[in-house]
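Hi, can you check this record?
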Amino acid sequence: MKKLWLALWVCAALLPRAAALSAAAAVTMDADTGETLFAENADSRLPMASTTKIMTALVALGEGGLDRVYTVKKQYAAVEGSSMYLEEGERLTLRDTLYGLMLSSGNDAAAAVAGECGGERAFVDKMNAKARELGLTDTRFENPSGLPSDGHYTTARELAKITAAALRDPVFRDIVSTKTCTAAGRTLVNHNRLLSLYEDAIGVKTGFTRAAGRCLVSAAERNGRTVIAVTLNDPDDWNDHIALLDDAFSRYSEVTLHYNQNIDYRERNCSGLHL
């Protein structure tokens, strides 16, 4: 008797969380299907700090011209907060700036990207237009960096959707999966520790402000499936993301189907006759 072995991925029944999360909101999502695998307060509007920069990068990548060289303006270098340490008058490409945006979480890089893609106000309008294009109703941007602002918010679920859209761009995937690189003469180190802590991690972005707390978006790929995890205001985000990703992948189990060629698998009616 010959057997044909087929390996299929099927979604397992929802599994309970082994331990409570520290996050104010959390979600895991299948990046390809958009299916929500786990959700906790996933539709609550909350600030998202520098995870904002996922949308900043997504819009900038849509603008093109990544290898265009520009000159850093004084207002770019003067932006407060995390920085890739741009200096007024230096020249670099938009591509290098995007590495500074996503690895070093540079607020100066965010200002430069926005400024060189039509100006900050117009760029933020493009960010909000992209959110509407993605069908998001609980996301609003007021700046490209994620600095605190009352009208700047998203939800864990909608941030996962933004990330899924961004991960479809191979340049974005390449940037956020980079642990360290040299760009514009400076060494940039990715703030995302999960690239070292989690074997299958492929990015994506950290964030922190006092108003937003610790925010983290991560993604991992295993056996052809990409899972996105998002936590907002999570003091134990690294451990929570490891647990969330493990939980998400455990919802898929490998099943082996046996095919016996001696059995006729044609559809039968209730009397046993072939149809």
The two ends are 26 Å apart (CA to CA).
